[in-house]
Every structure is written in C-alpha cells, then in structure tokens.
C-alpha cells in the first residue's frame, strides 16, 4: 500500500477541475495555458492541478503567483 508523504500535495485531473467549475475540460487546459492555473505535467504528458490552488480559486480567494 502506497502512503503519501506529509508534504505531498493532492493533484486533480482536468476532468475533476472541470466538474468543480462546471466547464469543459478543454477550458481548464486553456486556463492553464493562459496562466490562470498552475499545471504540473505527469511523465506521460498529462496535466494535473494542485487541489489547494483550485479550491482557493473556486472560493474566490485572490492568489499571489510567484
């Protein structure tokens, strides 16, 4: 059984993010390309999004990008 390390962040797929915002997954990809969301690429080239950042954006909390 795999366990997560304490500093490992939870990542969401484009479909999961799209379901939260009620938009198409391609819209989520466009947001990432526009710099509105941070995306991480898997080894297979798929995008994943940090759950904490998505939840903050969903709640309307302004973020400072570094």
UniProtKB/TrEMBL annotation:
| Gene3D superfamilies reported in the protein's UniProt record | 1.10.1660.10
Domain called Helix-turn-helix: residue spans: 11-59
Classification via Pfam families: HTH_17
Q: Which domain of life is it from?
A: Bacteria
Q: Which InterPro entries does the protein's record reference?
A: BldC-like, DNA-bd_dom_put_sf, HTH_17, SinI_DNA-bd
What name has this protein been given in UniProt? BldC family transcriptional regulator
Q: Please name the source species.
A: Angustibacter luteus
């Amino acid at each position: 059984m795999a366990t997560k390390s304490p500093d490992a962040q939870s990542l969401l797929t484009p479909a999961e993010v799209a379901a939260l915002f009620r938009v198409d997954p391609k819209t989520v990809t466009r947001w990432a390309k526009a710099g509105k969301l941070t995306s991480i690429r898997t080894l297979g080239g798929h995008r994943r999004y940090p759950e904490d950042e998505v939840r903050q954006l969903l709640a309307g909390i302004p973020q400072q990008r570094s």
